Amino acid sequence: MSTAKQGRSGLGLEAQREALARFAAAEGFEVVREFVEIETGKGADALDRRPQLAAALAEARRRRCAVGVAKLDRLSRDVHFISGLMAHRVPFLVAELGSDVDPFILHLFAALAEKERAMIAARTRDALSRAKARGVKLGGPKLAQARKAAVKTIKTNADRHAANVLPIIREIQRAGARSLRAIAEALNARGVLTARGGRWQGMTVSNVLARA
């Protein structure tokens, strides 16, 4: 969990457990230990501030097994931090990405996620600039409202696109595609575009499924 507030409320924790349980059952894995931590993954010294993650790494080395997480951002939202974790030579399994994602692809997904967040921030700034150009005074409550409206528009458009493409993804899954990579390839083969008009990757498929 990222904050103490989330930790106290248990926000998302059960969903993570359920996702990992489904993943383990589908792939034939056994969950041998659970580590729960309330700490941010930001900063170069993030691992020093995450004793539970350090303990999970040590346990995985002792048992010669992988560390599993429900989503990649439960490890961190920072590509450099994830790269540092890989230096510990402990394999990571991410339930939302499937079991066939090798370390290079995992690193790529992390970089894509970081880039996506940067693009969202850039679009938000652009929306605020356009509002300012229209004469909207941005400051205090006005600025907060404008930011909220911009984020809401981005989210609404993403949700609408996800709702439209989800039936296609389900059809592809019923046809036998299991991994995110296979689903992305099938979508590209059908000529289906992402919300930004680009080609599909495992991460973009994962984002759509997360919105379902």
Properties at a glance:
two-stranded parallel ribbon, 212 residues, mainly alpha
Radius of gyration: 19 Å
Helix content: 55-70%
Low-confidence stretches: none
Sheet of most strands? 2 strands, parallel
Instruction: Provide the β-strand percentage band.
Output: under 5%
Brief overview, please?
It contains eight helices and two strands; from the N terminus they run H-H-H-E-H-E-H-H-H-H. The chain is mainly α and 212 residues long.
Word description of this protein:
With 212 residues, the protein is mainly alpha-helical. The chain contains eight helices and two strands; from the N terminus they run H-H-H-E-H-E-H-H-H-H. It has helices at residues 4-9, 13-27, 51-63, 79-86, 103-133, 141-174, 180-189, 202-211, and strands at residues 67-69, 92-94. The protein has a two-stranded parallel ribbon with strand order 1-2. The longest helix is centred in the C-terminal third of the chain and has 34 residues, at 141-174. The chain is globular, with a radius of gyration of 19 Å. The two termini are 22 Å apart. The mean pLDDT is 77.
